[in-house]
Amino acid sequence: MKKTLAKIIEKINDLPVAKAEFRKIAKDPERAYEYARDVIGGRWSEAEKYIAKNPNCAIDYAKDVIGGRWPEAEKYIAKDPWNAYLYAEDVLKRPWPEAGYKL
User: Fold this and answer.
1) Can you give the pLDDT of all 103 residues of the chain as single tens digits?
2) Is 91 strand, coil or helix?
3) Residues whose CB falls within 8 Å of the CB of residue 22, separated by 6 or more in sequence, listed in order
4) In terms of DSSP H, where are the helices of 14-80?
């Protein structure tokens, strides 16, 4: 039953309409993070460039989806002291001197 359902979902996902909708979701950092967390259950490489540019979503994505450090997003996160603090506290679980802020 699971294999049959998986094949049906795969065929639906290959439809042009579905692909267009996935592109829309991927470009919205919050929706993309939630989709990766709740539907995919893991990383969504196509959406990561959009998620990374939104520090709040990037922190949540690193914490809830990646489960740790996300170097590609750090340059965006480090721009704001509060986000840098949250990333160090919630994701790295250690001081983050590279960001230039102390805990």
Assistant:
1) 556 756 665 666 676 666 788 888 899 999 999 999 998 899 999 999 999 999 999 999 999 999 999 999 999 999 999 999 999 999 999 999 888 765 5
2) helix
3) 13, 46
4) 16-27, 29-35, 45-52, 55-61, 71-77
Rounded Cα gap, residues 103 and 84, in angstroms: 9
17 is written with which tokens? 């309409």
DSSP-assigned states of every residue in 3-31: HHHHHHHHHHHTSHHHHHHHHHHHHSHHH
Half-sphere exposure of 25 (CA within 13 A, CB side): 17
How crowded is the C-beta side of 10, counted as CA atoms within 13 Å?
6
Which residues are CB-neighbours of 53 under 8 A, at least 6 positions away? 29, 76
